[in-house]
Amino acid sequence: MTSLSGSDARDKELAAQYEAYPYPERNPSDEAKRLLIGSPSHLREIDYWVFGARRSTSTPLRALVAGCGTGDGAIMLATHMARAERPGEVVCVDRSEHALNIAKARAQVRELTNIRFIQASLMDIESLELGLFDYIDCCGVLHHLPDPRAALSGLVRVLAPDGGMGLMVYAPYGRTGVYMVQEALEILTPFSEAPATRLDVAKRVMQNLPATAWLRQNGNFGDHLNGGDAGLYDLLLNPRDRAYDIPAFLQLLDDAGLEASCLMEPARYNPALFLPNPKLRARIEELPWQEQARVAEALTGNMATHVAYVVRKDKRVAPPSGDDTSAVPIMREIPGIELAKQIRIDGTLPFAFGTLTVPIALPPQIRSILPLIDGERTVGELADIMAETGMSKGKFFRIWREAFAILESLNRVLLKPPA
Fold first, then answer.
1. Could you report the per-residue pLDDT of 315-374, keeping only the tens digit for each?
2. C-beta contacts of 338-345 below 8 A and 24+ residues apart
3. What is 308-337 written as a DSSP string?
4. Which of 29, 82, 95, 180 has the fewest Cβ atoms within 10 Å of its own Cβ atom?
């Protein structure tokens, strides 16, 4: 996960942690039952948010997963590429032998031939001479490193000129309670003790955690608290764990010569969605998007992570207009017919931003359009089909323009890149 080069005591403990309790805890046999889906590194998201739905799917995609852990993002991306018959490869780098062995076993169950594994530190990535990558995943890693800025800058140096990254870092407000317990545990069981000893102490503390502890009120960590020994250890005993609020995260990107092409999901960072008061919305609309994101993070209080797709400064590729008649809309994951069923009779879509559910207003007629999205029909063809039902082209495009902007911001409907 982090570098052994120039490591300090905390870094050595971190290395010991991931050898003893690789995170997240995964059983390779489960690959025969399901594919774990998430962000970043979903192929359709990369196509859209990094390459603006303009990069041909016939162009090989070289992807680096920097700090792959037990392989969730790497397995998802390699599987998506294999299913879509997309050329390219996924190169996974991690310093933990135990974690890599789990990721390798998962890939073997899926019979993936487009993925390879290298045991090394991402801080030494340039010395590996792997060439340049079109896409780099660094998810849940930077916030554990001794020098996140240096690590990110090193990754930029192996990024192709027109490439992009998918990043995830911890965020402070949604982790309320975590750092309090971490502080107590570092006193009760210093990070210099053996991982098994520290885990035993943490379990005993959690069994006796006072009812007033802020962690008890935080509903963000079911996956950690129910994720076995590895989940509990990673949440409460990690020897180096920092969080970035939006200004700090954007500054980290800026220092590395990067900018966000998308904060995931974009709507999550729009405070107007949960501040329906007209006067407040008027104030919000006057703010730059960075300030809107700050307001959203501060008021919701439940953002435990920030996920972003990033590109070099001034290199963002704008996707085609959503109402371009030749554009091909595609559902990110949930089929259109299923998403349509979730829309209430009042035209709102209940959407969960973590532990916060917000009713998102949509044009009611979008219910009839969503089931038609199959990843093959163009926007123009959708308009033709709806015209046969009596919806004029003018009305279709008014509805589609409004609905696509909303569903794109929810990361539910994107555009397909050319073949």
1. 999 999 999 999 999 999 999 999 999 999 999 999 999 999 999 999 999 999 999 999
2. 339/370, 339/412, 340/366, 340/367, 340/368, 340/370, 340/371, 343/367
3. EEEEETT---PPPPTT-TT--EEESSS-HH
4. 29
Q: What is the DSSP string of 136-176?
A: EEEES-GGGSS-HHHHHHHHHTTEEEEEEEEEEEE-SGGGT
| Segment 66-88, tens digit of pLDDT | 999 999 999 999 999 999 999 99
Element (H, E) at 358: strand 356-361
Q: How far apart are CA 20 and CA 36, in angstroms?
A: 23
Q: Name, in order, each residue with C-beta under 8 angstroms of 274's C-beta and a sequence gap of 6 or more.
A: 296, 299, 300, 356, 358
Q: In the structure encoding, which two tokens stand for residue 403, read together? A: 């609905």
In angstroms, the CA 289 to CA 262 distance is 11
Burial of 148 (0-12, 13-18, 19+ CB in 10 A): buried
**CA–CA dist 414, 264 (Å, integer):** 13
Contacts of 322 (CB under 8 A, 6+ apart): 329, 379, 400, 401, 404, 405, 408, 415
What is the C-alpha separation between 401 and 321, in angstroms, rounded? 9
Whether the bond between 24 and the residue before it is cis, its omega within 30 degrees of 0, is: yes
Structural domains in the chain plus CATH codes:
18-173+243-312 (3.40.50.150), 175-236 (no CATH), 329-415 (no CATH)
In the three-class reduction of DSSP (H, G, I as helix; E, B as strand; rest coil), residue 349 is classed as: strand
